[in-house]
Structure to design on (238 residues):
């Protein structure tokens, strides 16, 4: 029996930011889904996030899933180097983005990430975060990279991002792919407005991806919506 999937995604600017620095990819044909969050407060965050989803979306899926993962990681490493060079050429401190990637295989799901864009897995009626934020210290409305600009008291410091440093390291985790399992990829514009307990409740109430995405955005936009908001939901089917 072949496991298939349904998916839905959306990205919006929110209520406070002047433009959207997030980008998403919903590529069902390749079994690939991506959320990238350009670093707010830095130059050309939207340039970085768009480059990530455009380049990943153009990758052919041939060979094994491990060949595909290697292509994804190689592409992110190439983008990282290009963004570092571009920032130097433009005389700016940083052009970067966080990213979270989900890849389907008939045997398992693979999730890779850099930064604090998250992936959650909803399985057996319970939501759990399967990524681990690359953030040091507290997490408030603003997460800075390094010390530029100087973080406010209590602010989190992002320890990893595409374009931030010469060498890029992508973390990966393997998850199950039983029918009925759902995955939520999101930028921090979602988890700034909804707690994990609220996300769990939304996943229970809205089993269909399009309904879940719609309701998550309704809730986030009914609140402060301080950041750009992006989410992709993938539900595995029989």
């Amino acid at each position: 029996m072949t496991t298939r999937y349904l998916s839905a995604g959306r990205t919006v600017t929110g209520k406070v930011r002047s433009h959207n620095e997030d980008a998403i990819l919903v590529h069902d044909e390749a079994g690939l889904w991506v959320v990238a969050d350009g670093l707010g407060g830095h130059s050309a965050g939207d340039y970085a996030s768009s480059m990530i989803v455009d380049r990943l979306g153009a990758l052919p899926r041939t060979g094994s899933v491990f060949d595909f993962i290697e292509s994804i990681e190689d592409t992110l490493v190439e983008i990282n180097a290009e963004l570092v060079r571009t920032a130097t050429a433009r005389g700016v401190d940083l052009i970067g983005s966080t990213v979270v990637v989900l890849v389907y295989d008939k045997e398992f799901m693979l999730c890779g990430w850099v930064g604090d864009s998250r992936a959650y897995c909803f399985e057996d009626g319970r939501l759990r975060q399967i990524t681990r934020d690359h953030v040091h210290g507290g997490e408030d409305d603003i997460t800075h990279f390094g010390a530029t600009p100087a973080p406010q008291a209590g602010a989190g410091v992002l320890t990893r991002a595409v374009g931030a440093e010469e060498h890029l390291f992508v973390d990966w985790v393997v998850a199950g792919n039983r029918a009925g399992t759902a995955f939520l990829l999101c930028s921090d514009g979602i988890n700034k407005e909804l707690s994990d307990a609220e996300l769990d409740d939304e996943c229970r109430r809205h089993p269909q991806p399009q309904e879940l995405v719609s309701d998550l955005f309704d809730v986030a936009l009914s609140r402060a919506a301080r950041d750009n908001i992006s989410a992709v939901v993938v539900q595995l089917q029989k």
